[in-house]
């Protein structure tokens, strides 16, 4: 008897809910969404894009990826520092570096962000120094300005 009452109650409930769930499909509704965006978001997006470009150009120690000209690789320390002195006297606008990577002292010149700049300087230096001048990738000292376009 309880089963019969439960069945009838369930059937009655089903009939009531089915009648209420009919949807009028003949009515067409145009749904639109209006998004009000703060204009400062565009400025923030542009600034983040610049930061992302610059961070791609940086190494893990905070220096930028760039190029230098390597003029000498020798195990003679005095020869390396003599060449550095000569470079600084002939090209005072460029920085010269002597690094030691056992067992060699390497003399490098310049901080070039682009390869083209380094190649141009290489041609100028090759007039005064007849030794092999190699263009090498290195972490360079560079301070970007706000209006710099880094590519």
Describe it for me?
By secondary structure, the protein is an alpha+beta fold. It has a domain of 77 residues: 2-Layer Sandwich (Alpha-Beta Plaits), CATH 3.30.70.1070. 40% of the residues lie in helices and 22% in strands. It contains four helices and four strands. It has a four-stranded antiparallel beta sheet. Strand 2 and strand 3 form a beta hairpin. The chain is elongated. The mean pLDDT is 83.
Q: Which bin fits the share of residues in helices? A: 40-55%
Question: Kindly, what is the distance between the CA atoms of the first and last residues, rounded to a whole number of angstroms?
Answer: 84 Å
- CATH architecture tag of the domain at 64-140: 2-Layer Sandwich
H/E series: HHEHEEHE
- Give the strand line-up of the largest sheet: 2-3-1-4
Tell me the CATH topology of the domain at 64-140: Alpha-Beta Plaits
Number of H- or I-type helical stretches: 4
- Taking all residues together, what is the mean pLDDT? 83
**Approximately what portion of the residues adopt beta-strand conformation?**
15-25%
Query: What structural class do you assign from the helix and strand content?
Result: alpha+beta
Given this structure, which CATH class of the domain at 64-140 is correct?
Alpha Beta
Q: What kind of sheet is the major sheet? A: 4 strands, antiparallel
Produce a short descriptive summary.
The chain is 40% helix and 22% strand. With 151 residues, it is of the alpha+beta class.
């Amino acid at each position: 008897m309880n089963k019969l009452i439960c069945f009838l109650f369930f059937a009655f409930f089903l009939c009531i809910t089915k009648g209420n769930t009919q949807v009028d499909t003949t009515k067409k509704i145009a749904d639109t969404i209006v998004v009000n965006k703060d204009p400062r978001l565009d400025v923030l997006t542009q600034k983040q894009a610049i930061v992302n470009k610059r961070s791609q150009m940086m190494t893990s120690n905070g220096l930028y990826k760039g190029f230098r000209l390597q003029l000498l690789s020798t195990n003679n320390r005095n020869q390396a520092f003599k060449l550095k002195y000569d470079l600084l006297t002939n090209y005072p606008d460029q920085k010269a570096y002597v690094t030691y990577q056992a067992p060699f002292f390497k003399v490098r010149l310049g901080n070039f962000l682009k390869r083209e700049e380094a190649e141009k300087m290489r041609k100028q230096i090759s007039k005064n120094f007849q030794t092999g001048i190699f263009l090498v990738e290195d972490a360079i000292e560079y301070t970007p300005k706000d209006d710099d376009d880094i590519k």
